Amino acid sequence: MATIPAHIDALPSDAALGAMLDSHIAAAEAVRNALPALEKAAQQVAETLSRGGTLTYAAAGSSGLMALSDASELAGTFGTAPSQSRIAMAGGVPVDADMPGDTEDATDQTEAIAAAMGPQDTAIILSASGTTPYALAVAKAVRDRGLPVIAIANVAQAPLLDLADIAIPLPTAPEVIEGSTRLGAGTAQKVALNMISTLAGILMGHVHDGLMVNLRPDNIKLRARAATIVTRITGVSQAQAEAALEATDYDTKPAVLVATGISVADARRLLAGHDNRLRPCLERGAASTN
Length: 290
What we know:
Layout: H1 13-29, H2 35-50, E1 55-59, H3 61-78, E2 85-89, H4 110-115, E3 122-127, H5 133-144, E4 149-153, H6 159-162, E5 166-169, H7 184-203, E6 207-208, E7 211-212, H8 220-234, H9 238-247, H10 252-259, H11 264-272, H12 278-288
Parallel strand pairs: 1-2, 1-3, 3-4, 4-5
Antiparallel strand pairs: 6-7
Helix pairs in contact: 1-7, 2-7, 3-7, 8-9, 8-10, 9-10, 10-11
């Protein structure tokens, strides 16, 4: 575990930066002991999204920003519907640099957050201390409705974790700047959330050989990336990959299959018959040509 200098403000700048880096590395390493819980959380997230449910991320302050980052990137990375990710940040998502601290004590809207959730939904709730009133109130309201709660806290045996179906303790060392949870605690939370959502994407079949095959390209850069994905999986030329993508309205998974020589209709039918997973479709196609 990294040793935090007592007088970091008195250190030379390079030494202060080194101490900060050591703190971040130690915070990331703190996630390792939570791997079994992260696996359970990823399975829950994958099940929720696969059955059309929604993830409600709830947190305050720095934890809310970590939640916002993860939730906002699901659609772009794994092609999930944007409506399947909701952000319940105390005080609302800031549109400027003003993020008042008192919003974490506000609990008057937490019942409404839970009430907006459906029977197929899951809540992911974060709090560095595990005692934030807003996070606790959302967790209790969701739990009272019988809906699953995934909770992340940076203090072992925190009250928030007691309200969770899947509890993820990430005990991190004291911060380089005491009380500023955007540092070590925020790093551990972001690493954990990224791992959960990435494994969930894999479990849903949206990753093939490390490629984002459920990518929905909506700009020039992403269309070029989709063509590269089709080329790398099938070995066709860039022009053939682009033609397959155009034929499928830039839907990457069926485009991969079309590039192997089947029709768009057959590609979609094959995916539908294999739970929208690309690998078994490709293996079936390879077997049929042998």
